[in-house]
Design brief:
The chain is α/β, with parallel strands linked by helices and 281 residues long. The protein is 48% helix and 20% strand. A seven-stranded mixed β-sheet has the order 3-2-1-4-5-7-6. The longest helix is centred in the C-terminal third of the chain and has 28 residues, at 217-244.
Amino acid sequence: MFTPKDVAEYYNTTLNHYERWWNLKKSLSVHFGIWENGIKTFAESLANTNRVLANLAKITESDHVLDAGCGVGGAAIHLAQTQNAQITGITLSSKQVDYATATAIRLGLSNKVSFHMMDYTQTTFENESFDVVWACESVSSAQNKSDFVQEAYRLLKKGGRLIVSDFFLTDEKQEDRHDWIRKWQDSWGMNNLVTSAYFISELVTAGFIIKENLDYTDKVRKSAKRLYKASIWGALPSEFYNLTHPRVTRFAKTHYRSGYYQWKALKEELWRYGAILAIKY
C-alpha cells in the first residue's frame, strides 16, 4: 500500500508527465474526460467532467466547496469561474499546490480559491465547514476509504453533498489473470480499488443518503484509449531515458506503463468509472 508520503512523491515526480500527456497548462486537469453528445475534443471532455459533477452536486454561488485531492486546481478554478462558488483545494503534493496557486493568481481568482497541502482523511478544518465535498479521481489514492468517508461526513454541514467520481472494481471476486489492476495501481500511485457497492456501504454506514449512483464507463472509454496510445508512443523514449538516467525516480520510471495497464484492465471489464452523490442528513 502507498502511504500519503508515497502519493505525494508520485504527483511531485510525475507532474511534468501530465503536462505533456494531458496538456496540463491548458486543461488544468489530471482526470479522465467524460465524452457525451456534442463533445468533439479531449479538452472539451475534460471540461465536461467538471460540468457533469457540478450539475450532479447542484453547486451554486452560495456554496463553499472542499476539493479533496484538488490536483493542479482545474476543478476549483472551473467552479469559481462558472458557479461563482468559494473553493478550498487540498492535495498531498507541494508541487500541485504551487502550480494551482500560481494559476489562481494569474487568473485573478485568489479571492475565490485557495490551495493547501493537506491529507483529506485528517484535515484541520472545523466540523461542518463545507456545503460540498468534491472528490474527482482522488479517493482511489486513499489507503482506507472509510477514513475519507468519515472525514467528509464530519466536514459537511447538514444537507451537505459529497460528489465522488472514480475508478471502481467491477466485482470483488473477479479474476485478474494478468494482474492488470495491481500493475496499474503500482504505476499510478493508487491504493487498492474497491467496488462501488463497497464504497456505497461505507457511505451509508457513516450516515450518508445515496442520491445518485451513475456509471460513466462507456463515456470515459475514449479517455482511457487516449492514455493507452500515449503509453505506446512513450514506451521507447521512456525506456531510453530510464537507461540513460539510472537515478530516475521510481514512479517516473514506470509511469508511462499505467496507460497500458488501465486499458488492458478496461478491455477485460475489470473496472468501471462511476459518479456517486451522497447527502448528509
